[in-house]
Amino acid sequence: MPELxxxxxxxxxxxxxxxxxxxxxxxxxxxxxxxxxxxxxLFKKQLIGKKFLSAARVGKNILLxxxxxxxxxxxxxxxxxxxxxxxxxxxxxxxxxxxxxxxxDPYNRFxxxxxxxxxxxxxxxxxxxxxxxxxxxxxxxxxxxPDIKDLGPDPTNKEFDFKKFKEVIGSKRGKIKQTLMxxxxxxxxxxxxxxxxxxxxxxxxxxxxxxxxxxKLKDIFKAVKPILTKSIKMRGTSSSDFRDASGNKGSFQxxxxxxxxxxxxxxxxxxxxxxxVKFGGRSSHFCPVHQK
Length: 292
Ligand SMILES: [Zn+2]
Fold this sequence. Notes:
By secondary structure, the protein is an alpha+beta fold. It is built from eight helices and 13 strands.
């Protein structure tokens, strides 16, 4: 699933190309991805003719601000990603025009929604597993939307210091990994980065938050920003389906230390072999030697 660095990559890409473009038409291939308004007809009615103002990230949500007090919110969920480029309909199917990742990378071929823009290009939602969520909302009322209002602080924010981290996490109970991934506690961290952060901080993913000493909390905090910012710099992790708006892969997978490294020697050279344990349908990767 795209996490903070991947969503940030897409948002930065879209911010470069969308402002000023008008939505001229919308093709909806999978109506269920629209969560608000109730029908795709209403959805189209609210958006066609509106102009993109800017793009922003809130947690793992992409917010596309439009004219007319309208915001288009996209949560990419499992396999969704936003592509920007040029497609044409041929025999009832969207085909990318010209060679390149949009046409040639099979992960970019699952178009579920296509916004045709005033410059002749398209913004497309590509989503193999169809879990992505799209909705419109009045911009002035975004603060009332549960997707936004319930989110915890953003860990890449300047104000997110150790004091804030301790304040949001220190009062919680439960497994540290789950706590880090809880969007209402901290927004943006998911499975990949929680594994990487805890490996860096020498903390077992199932360690109980209420039992962690200050020193350990500090080690975790110290791992959060550097890992997330380095991944943003590397344009995210594409260990499976994530692609940027041009359809290209990120490259942080080259820097992963523990995520999907099951059976490999621990990069801390402590003799540990990376283990994978399933919990709540998700895999956790850790080194049994230095993450006790
Ligand atoms: Zn180790």
